[in-house]
Design a protein that fits this description.
alpha/beta, 30% helix, 18-stranded parallel beta sheet
Length: 588
């Protein structure tokens, strides 16, 4: 009796547990059976795949992450679930689009779908139209073959997952997704359209392939689009990476991205030149066009066409390990006009076949680049570009002047911007060099005569930025006049007080002629050393002079013409010196 009581208790507990399990299974299976019965009243001849979908959708005990498998395997990576071979699937794997619509629309059916729709490896027949429908559960169509157009316009749901599917056109304008939009390994033929959508989580399109529609987009100026998310509001990360391919434009114009925007390890083939349009987009975090530090196994990006990011805002924009290509007769490259970016990185970029880079009007906090990675001469636009800091291997004036020279035509603002930065960094000499180069370009742009005048101002005063050059020229003129006056004295062509007042030859103590002082007196317009007052060349006289054993004949008229030139030079160089010192000639 003592041994029988524990055995009886154990048997009772085991029996109770069995009863609980059986009851639980019966209770959990009840919604699925009710949903299946309800569907049989609406649809005749349910396929095995449709039956599996209904049982899974109505089950309370479905495994987390599991699927209603239309094929023999419930694993997405099983080769039997590859929709690329959907032509070999039998009718048993078909699911009617009307059945999915019914599950999402019928009030009685929706109540019996506690875990949402999670369908794997099915061929969905007919047009799936869920426009203007609000769904309380997530919709997951994984590795499905969907040949006809899907319409999700103005639909609202917690999450949409189309990963691994092969689809036709997707129309999801104004869709509201409270969680993630997952399109990893999706093959969409005919264009995927999500304009003005609202996505509360991430938009992930890793390894996906999008092909543009045959119908040209209207009013967008983009030609044919492969993926349209223009005006979208996306709170999380956006990833077009890891083998992503787009045959047509990817549109993100006017989109707002709350986290990173990633274009890494992908190929973007633009239609009508435009490959990526992010005009007026707002990236709250960073945009990566090329390598991303946290994505391993994939580097860089290849763009065949034009990347437009005009009037865009971003905390950081990193263009690294990127290649831009296109037809020589079509515009291709990178356009960042009038955008605002705190940190702009341009490293290891390849620009093929005359690709352009347009930074005109952009406002950058920091510009980190490699000048040798900029485009060919005439393909770089910098007018209106402003920046607070420069980084990279070459930030000196000479290297940056080569960078500025790549512009197709002269603009003064880029030179002033560079000079301002160099001056703020304490490089006054470099700033002056840049401003002088700007004036050289400006004068040269107005013809040969203007270029000659500019060359004179550069040589004499550095356009006002190096006024002390005038002193050097002045000393040179004075030193040149010294031996000429000395030779004129030795040749006897200098006459006393000629022509005003000739003294008597017998007058004692007449002022002696000092050639160096005479040269100074003739050159300096505001100084009177009284040498000119007592001596002046006799234009009718000529005499011989011996210099270093060589005799030559010197005419007074030649000396007089030289002194006239020296007097004129004195006035001119003095005026230029004053203008340079006072800043009257500087253009900055």
């Amino acid at each position: 009796m003592r041994l029988g009581r524990p055995r009886a208790i154990s048997a009772t507990l085991l029996f109770a547990a069995i009863i609980v399990i059986i009851t639980d299974h019966v209770v959990s299976a009840a919604p699925a059976l009710e949903l299946l019965k309800l569907a049989e009243g609406e649809f005749s001849n349910l396929t095995p795949a449709e039956t599996a979908l209904l049982k899974f959708a109505g089950s309370l005990r479905s495994e987390p992450g599991g699927f209603a498998a239309a094929g023999p395997s419930g694993k997405p990576d099983d080769p039997s679930n590859d929709p690329a071979h959907a032509d070999n699937w039998g009718k048993e794997r078909e699911v009617r689009a009307e059945l999915i619509e019914w599950l999402c629309v019928d009030e009685s059916a929706k109540k019996l779908v506690p875990r949402g729709i999670r369908l794997l490896g099915a061929r969905i027949t007919g047009k799936l139209d869920l426009a203007h429908v609000t769904i309380p559960f997530a919709l997951t169509l994984r590795n499905c073959s969907i040949g006809e157009r899907m319409t999700f316009e103005n639909m609202a749901l917690p999450q949409l997952d189309l990963s691994g599917c092969y689809t036709g056109e997707i129309d999801a304008e104004n869709i509201v997704i409270h969680g993630n939009l997952l399109m990893n390994d999706l093959h969409a033929s005919g264009g995927a359209s999500f304009p003005n959508s609202t996505i509360g989580g991430n938009l992930l399109a890793r390894g996906s392939h999008f092909t543009h529609s045959k119908v040209e987009a209207e009013g967008l100026g983009l030609g044919n689009m492969a993926l349209d998310a223009g005006g979208a509001q996306i709170r999380g990360v956006v990833e077009f990476c890891c083998g992503f391919e787009a045959d047509g434009a990817v549109n993100l114009a006017n989109a707002a991205i709350g986290s990173d925007m990633i274009f890494t390890g992908g190929t973007f083939n633009g239609a009508n030149d435009v490959a990526i349009d992010a005009n007026a987009a707002n990236f709250s975090s960073a945009a990566f066009l090329g390598t991303h530090p946290l994505i391993t196994g994939y580097r860089g990006v290849h763009v065949n066409g034009l990347v437009q990011m005009r009037v865009m805002r971003a905390n950081a924009l990193v263009v690294q390990d990127a290649t831009f290509s296109g037809a020589p007769n079509e515009q291709h490259g990178f356009d960042l006009r009038s955008s605002s970016v705190r940190i702009f990185v341009w490293l290891n970029v390849t620009l093929n076949r005359g690709a352009i880079v347009d930074l005109s009007g952009a406002s950058l906090g920091s510009l980190i680049d490699e000048p040798r990675r900029w485009p060919a001469p005439g393909k770089l636009e910098l007018d209106g570009l402003t920046y607070d800091q420069l980084g990279g291997p070459a930030i000196d004036a000479r290297s940056r002047l080569q960078w500025l020279a790549l512009q197709p035509e002269f603009h003064l603002q880029p030179y002033r911007q560079l000079a301002k930065l160099l001056r703020n960094n304490g490089d006054d000499s470099g700033a002056a060099e840049v401003l002088i180069a700007a004036e050289d370009r400006r004068y040269a742009s107005h013809g040969r005569a203007s270029a000659l005048g500019g060359g004179f101002l550069n040589a004499t005063i550095g356009y006002g930025h190096k006024p002390l050059r005038t002193i050097g020229w002045s000393v040179l003129v004075i030193l040149l006049g010294w031996p000429i006056v000395w030779a004129a004295k030795r040749a006897g062509v200098m006459r006393p007080t000629f022509p005003e007042n000739i003294p008597h030859s017998s007058e004692p103590g007449y002022e002696e002629l000092h050639p160096l002082l005479y040269s100074l007196d003739a050159f300096l317009p505001f100084v009177n050393l009284h040498q000119e007052h007592y001596w002046w060349p006799n234009s009718k006289a000529a005499g011989d002079c011996v210099v270093l054993g060589h005799k030559f004949r010197l005419r007074g008229s030649l000396v007089r013409h030289y002194l006239w030139l020296q007097i004129f030079s004195g006035w001119l160089l003095s005026a230029i010196l004053i203008a340079g010192v006072t800043g009257l000639m500087r253009s900055d």
